What does this fold into?
Amino acid sequence: MNKTILALNTVSGLAHLAQIGVIYPLLALWLDAGGMPTWQIGLVETSVWLGMLIGNLFAPMWLHRLGPAALAAAGCLGSALLALLMPHLQPDALIAWSLAAALLGVCLGLRWIGVESWLYAIVDDSQRGRFVGLHETIINAAQGAGPSLIALLGVMGNKSFYAAAVLGTLAVLPLLWARIPMPASVDDAAMHPLAVLTGLLRHARRSLPIQLGLLAGVIDGVLFGMLSIYFVHQGLSASQAAFMMTVFGIGGLLLQLPLGWWSDRRGVHSATRIVALLGLAGTALLLPGNPLLAWPAAALLGSVAAGGLAVTIIAATQSAVGDNKHMALAVTEISIAFTLGSTVGPVLAGAMMNAWGQACLPLLSAVACVGLYGIARKSQEPKRA
It folds into this structure.
């Protein structure tokens, strides 16, 4: 594998382990153990995605001016500093936690656009699905390892946060090995946040990647944001719930390479329908509340949370090549759509679970999966070379 591709995958793996593998699920478990109500935890989790939305909007402009390496480094180091700060916040300080979570989201957005725009701009289009599958496998390995690290180091105390700070700092080092530059970007005006947002709104109604990204974000936000709380309220301890989220991550890990291969062979629409059906199967297993069924349910739901993003990235990067759109803009559009969905997901799930019970989480996931299947079924598969 090319050194630059290896380096960028390593950056994503380490940074994702810190930001989403450890800090993101730790927020919900830490605040729940501290007595914060479920609906407030949903707001804090949503703040991550609101911050990421801001980071996504400004990232193309900063990428154009600073370059992808500096943008990615800023995102990694910023999250490391936040991980050092978070354990010193009061557990009931909703505003402080929401602000810290939003800043984490900004850092996540900068790292995502900086690394993934660069990576997918230099890979061969004929093997795009496989490269996305490999990258998402690394991402989901990190996402699965994070809750295990939390279970090992403990939910309460500072060790898990400090481990995330170390990982975020280490993620910067592989950028020194990246040698292939990102292709020149379009003019600065096209990268301006207002231009990016206008383009997104203009393309949303007819863009498969944007529509997929929105629903994939809802699914990811509902499941990865609130599934651990669902398990706690089903009788699991915080450490057991963290371990169950490891199973969730493993489910996503195992699907990515086969999904990328299938997309290259049969098309992204077919791959999307598979993801939606797996999600419906996982929801059906989760609803009875049986502890034995929770294991396969977590694995299947992990596969849909990860697979939804994977098919979105494949569709977006294929579209960028076909339309001669700069890769940073294509990745930014789906990142914003995914982030909007992820913003709605946990706060909606938290409010519904608080008002009507825990069964609202699997039901909300099922509705989103049905929508994912419908979009893939309705859209026309592009002609393949």
About this structure: The chain has a mean pLDDT of 85.
